[in-house]
Structure prediction request, 565 residues.
Amino acid sequence: MIATPIDPTDPWLRQAQTFPVLSAEMIERAKTYGREEVMAEDTFVFERGQRGIDFFLVLEGEIELFIDDVRRGRRLVFTYHPGQFSGEQNIFTKRPMLLSGLAKSGSRLLRITNRDFHAFITGEPDIGETIIRAYILRRAGFVRHSEGGVVLIGDRHHADVLRIQRFLTRNLYPVAVVDPATEPPVVPLMQSLAVTADALPVVITPDRKVWSRPSNAALADLLGINESPERDTIYDVAVVGAGPAGLAASVYGASEGLSTIVLETLAPGGQAGTSSKIENYLGFPTGISGQALAGRAHIQAQKFGARISVSHEVMKLDCSSHPYRLLLDDETSLRARSIVIATGARYRKLDVLNYDKFEGQGIHYAATAMEAQVCSDETIVVVGGGNSAGQAAVFLSRTVKHVHMLMRSGIASTMSDYLVQRIQRSPRISLYQQAEITALHGDKTLNGVTWIDHRTGESHELPVTSIFVMIGASPNTGWLDGCLDLDQHGFVKSGMTAVGDTPPSPYATSKDGIFAVGDVRAGSVKRVASAVGEGSVVIAAIHQFLERQRHAEHEEPELNATAAR
Prediction:
């Protein structure tokens, strides 16, 4: 019997993959990794908030899965039957569980400890593939239905509400957004928790804890999203940035036995994670969203043992001694034998008055399902002429009233042809080439823009509350603090260090053992596929560097002993 979906009016797709039943032959193989247990009474085998839980496979009986909700209490949402298994992607990490599982009296279960779980999925790859696919889909379902996470109360268009919602959603943490102005039933809950209007927005957990306007870092720590660096550990590889290049480096580094940590300020995926759909990425003929691609890479890295720390920014690289030291914004630090710089580039800002005032309250840099919901049935503006801007315009045109697309150059010179054709054919997209915004209007939130058509010299006004800015690329290299050579635009120069007869790696920087990949590297091709390629290939150069380091460390005592004699 397949588990019942949370919302029967909007059933989860691919249920046979989300809640699969393992074959008898698979179950027999799984038994060699764990032990059987019989429940003498109803027993919670895992509960919300626990970390490092075990994996359970139902042999006889059932496990009931419960979700705790501050508004509706504890609810039964799934029942696992023989051949089905518990868990979701938090089992790969030490992050807290979102749900509770009650094994019914008389049930016979196979328990595989958290310590042995990684050996199980790598030792039985076909079973591992089934489990990982199910875990990805389960988490996607929880996020889609806003189940198992927190409640965010506040004005849906408020900058802090959008910031918190974006941070949690991009980190695949379920969040239900409730606006008291349009959903009055939430008011009694606010009153029972002594939440006043001036405290909004607030985040409320299932156990009724209330946080007013928490920072991203505070949320990550309080909800267990962040995996902090381990103290007194010297990592083989520290990857700074979890975009496509950084995630690729973490997957290949961890899978090849290197102790690997990834440091990311916001969420896995980087700039690519904000793309509504990437259609020209090899192997995905129907396209894949940037967030989905990042989510798969994230769990793949964790499968191999990479540690992924989000929400704390790297403030400085100390390259004065080896191992290198990275200083974080919470005043902690970590050391690593090699560094991969994959901090990418961010979109540039428009040079117009009051721009900063409307960031987060009308100005967006991402076009995902969340933003599409925020500006549904509205008229919007997309600024930019690259693929990201084109993807945003096409995606948003499905849900908004109309898209006005402004770009300073001609569309065909900067955008893939398949996007150009869709934009030109769409009746819901108006394209203005050689045009730019000259003014923003509004008090607390954006309510209009003025733009100029440089071909005619005419200015026009548009009453809009949302603009999507996707122009240019400004490298995230301010934190390098003079350690490395940069080009005139701030991108990291590479292909510079050679040892003996060994040719330099294309990704080697001016400091031995520090490498740059992806958009942050000077001369790189700004495409997802090339970033993934660079992130995977750089690990070979890191192996060479670490081998040289081990050889030098071995030779030094011998030289000292010889000198002493």
Residues 1-11 have pLDDT under 50 and may be disordered. DSSP finds 14 helices and 28 strands in the chain. The first strand starts at residue 35 and ends at 38.
